[in-house]
Amino acid sequence: MNKAKTGRAKVALSKPSEGASGLTGLWRLRRPVIDPAKCTKCHLCWLYCPEGAIARGADGAVWMIYEYCKGCGICSEVCPSKSISLVKEG
Amino acid sequence: MITLKDLPVEEYYLPGNAACSGCASALSTRIALKILGPKTIVVIPACCASVIQGYYPKSPSKVPIMNTAFAATAATASGIVAGLEVKGRKGITVMGWAGDGGTADIGIQALSGAAERNEDFIYICYDNEAYMNTGTQSSSATPRGAKTTTAVMGKGERKKDVPEIMIAHDLPYVATACAAYPLDFAEKVSKAMKLKGLKYIHLLSPCPPGWRFPTEKMVEVGKAAVMTGAWILYEWEGGKYTLTGPSKGLIDKAKRRPLKEYLAMQGRFSKIPEAEVEALQRDVDSKWEAMKKKLGA
Predict the structure, then answer these.
(1) Omega into B8 within 30° of 0, i.e. cis?
(2) Helices (H) and strands (E) in chain A, counts
(3) Which end of chain A is less crowded, N or C, counting CB atoms within 10 A of the terminal residue's CB?
(4) Which domains does chain A have, with CATH numbers?
(5) Do B183 and A47 touch (CB under 8 A)?
């Protein structure tokens, strides 16, 4: 531990940040794609996303944060209007 | 009643963490922190949740997390509560977030001690029914018949009923929840937050790699656990049991789906003998009979 000028010990504290484990979107094998025409803005996908990788706009629209989405596919399973499809990556 | 609209849009557990794809624990952490808000201190022992945080110098959590030794979740949380009291800091919730190994096996003495003293914090055990981050070794919360890397033919012993152990400590609030019903879980966390003393929530957390099912089926498997009656959602407050969520309608055996459906979804129950399935079904039925008596119905 380094001693700072104040005489207090510096502690190795992690700071909150997105991507604490890198761009986890690279793990993804299947990409969830929303069809905005079918989406009813019920936000169930947002509720169930384990990653918090689904963003909500002020108008209620949702979109994926592909940098971090791990492609688990839960959003497409819970979607009542079947507006999220899984597309194979690569 | 908490609805989807009551949950804040702000995330306190940020994306890009090290949780497996389809992790129910990561989902539940997200939901719990949305309810508890920024004035929370989380205590995490060695478990999946400590791995999920990733590595220095970044952390996915916007609230402070204290990582502690495997056995010491409840002891550390007690210390933090005492420290806050001495410093005169009010309005801060302390939450212990431990796995089933750190609760039912290794951490139970510290938890029992804290329960005896009735320390003022929330203890949530996310139960993925084995030591998942070290490679699916059996814990005392692993159900009978499930295959793990230390019980390759399926575990022979029954699952330890930790919520009942905690009820025996006469706590202010004990509840069970399931990650597939996040709003029911959110309701229980918000109820626990308002009470004083030790509040215990046991959360069933389906684990895709450990239970061996496809990641997208996490919610479906969790719902099947409840609908077949293998997992009962209830609250215990002031000596009174109350069923919550879909479990309310499952007292009648005819309403419950056969346990076979739940077992068939998971690779850990693959090739389970028919006689064993029947024995497990009988276990579920007798658990419900006992629950009926407790409810006084």
Answers:
(1) no
(2) 2, 5
(3) C
(4) 24-88 (3.30.70.20)
(5) yes
Residue range B4-295, CATH number: 3.40.50.970
Q: What residues of chain B have any CB closer than 8 angstroms to a CB in chain A?
A: 4, 7, 9, 11, 13-24, 26-27, 30-31, 53-62, 182-183, 208, 214-220
Q: Do A70 and B220 touch (CB under 8 A)?
A: no
Q: What is the mean pLDDT of each run of 10 residues along chain B (297 residues)?
A: 92 95 96 96 95 91 95 97 96 96 95 96 97 94 96 94 96 97 97 96 97 96 97 95 95 95 96 95 96 88
pTM over 0.90: yes
Q: Would you call B21 and A48 a contact, using CB atoms and an 8 Å cutoff? A: no
Chain A residues lying within 8 Å of B23, measured CB to CB: 50
Cα B38 from Cα B129, distance rounded (Å) = 29
Q: Which of B285, B288, B287, B267 is nearest to B146 (CA)?
A: B267
Pick B216's closest partner by Cβ from A18, A52, A72: A72
